[in-house]
Amino acid sequence: MPRPRKWLAILNMVFAIGCRHCPLMENIHSMSEEDLVFLSRARLLGFHFSVLFEHSDFQQTQLECLMAIYLLCVGQINRASKFSSMALRSALSLGINLRLTDPQTAEAAKEARGRLWWPIYSLEHLITSVTGRASSVSENICSGSVPFPCEEETFEHPETKRLLQDPTLRDTHLRPSLFVHHLVDLNLVTQALMNKVDSIEGLRQGASRTEYHVQKLGLKMDCWLTKLPPAYRFTLPDAGPWHLKHPQLDDLAAPFVRERVCLAMNYYSARIILCRPCLTYNHTNTQIQASRPQSSSSNPDLSSRSNLRSEMATHCLQAACAFISILPESPDLS
Question: For 15, which of 38, 112, 120, 284 could close a Cys bridge (C-beta 3.0–4.6 Å)?
């Protein structure tokens, strides 16, 4: 029985992404062009002309997401943004961003819907973070839960079924998919601050409202950091506010070091985005306040606001220094 065209297209896209990933994991110095062969096959199988006029389906949405990931891997950011938006619109039309409460649907099928939605969400968030363009997603666009910490091949195991039915047990299992759970959780907070603070909406709301969102989302990031399992923690308990030493990230042979590095870089990047408006405000308003030296003392609210912005500007600098401290002293440029 011949395989469906879209299934074969998905398989070829997985192979194409794998070809780009292999040189990063193995000592391969010559870049092979095998990924272009798989890419061409996927284009012929899954992106023919009639697809543009067909209704969205689950496999086509998967294919669009994989194409966006591949284009992002090869540095084609504009094309990746295009396919990411296509995958997002397809996902919204299928409603996989919504929680499915049908009791007749298996828990594994519900989880599969969420596992397609959250990569699309995270990919769109990553691309908009890199490009600085307006985002198509918001913090209220989805009602589904974050991915469960279990591998797909174990969906039929009794322990996994119990885990799918009881979300409170997910943090007790340290598995690779638990890393995705925490990464998605951080992406939700970061996307909220990009929509509320680092956006046109943030400029229109005024300074007081922006400061409120900065403080609120800053507390959410602190809460996220405290909830990390010990194996994924990248900060020391008594390291102070600067976090310039990361012994948990120095031993590259240690378990889960790759996950810790990824979480650390995403966390400090989010901190920089969160506090950057206060840093910019302090810089542009120093001369104005200097010309009116008595204004702060005569207005307690203005003084309090100035202190808050100075504090957040310091946090921005601390996050930037912490991010730089993660980078290796001698990078491998081979």
Answer: 38
DSSP string of 128-187, one letter each residue: HHHH-PPPS--TTS--SPPPPSS-GGGTTSHHHHHHHH-GGGGGG---HHHHHHHHHHHH
The pair of three-digit structure tokens given for residue 58, joined into one six-digit string = 């689950």
Residue 299 zone, left/alpha/beta (φ > 0; ψ -120 to 50; rest): beta
Q: At which residue do the structure tokens 């600098």 appear? A: 317
Phi, psi of 265 (to 5 degrees): -65, -40
Distance between CA atoms of 223 and 241, rounded to whole angstroms? 15
C-alpha count within 13 angstroms, C-beta hemisphere, residue 290 = 6
**The amino acid at 73:** C
Quote the CA–CA distance of 32 and 29 in Å, as a whole number. 9
Please give the angle made by the CA atoms of 72, 92 and 210, to the nearest 5 degrees: 75
Question: Per residue in 76-92, pLDDT tens?
Answer: 999 999 999 999 999 99
Phi-psi region of 172 (alpha: psi -120 to 50; beta: other; left: phi over 0): alpha
Q: What is the pLDDT of residue 178?
A: 78
Both tokens assigned to 215:
């403080």
pTM for the predicted model, two decimal places: 0.76
| Cα separations in angstroms, 267 against 61, 147, 222, 262 | 29, 19, 10, 9
Q: Model confidence over 262-292: pLDDT tens digits? A: 999 999 999 988 887 777 654 444 444 444 5
Supply 25's token pair.
């994991």
Query: In degrees to the nearest 10, what's the CA dihedral of 72, 19, 89, 164?
Result: -120
CA 289 to chain centre: 38
CA–CA dist 170, 185 (Å, integer): 14
The tokens describing 111, both together, are: 């989880």
DSSP tag of 29: -
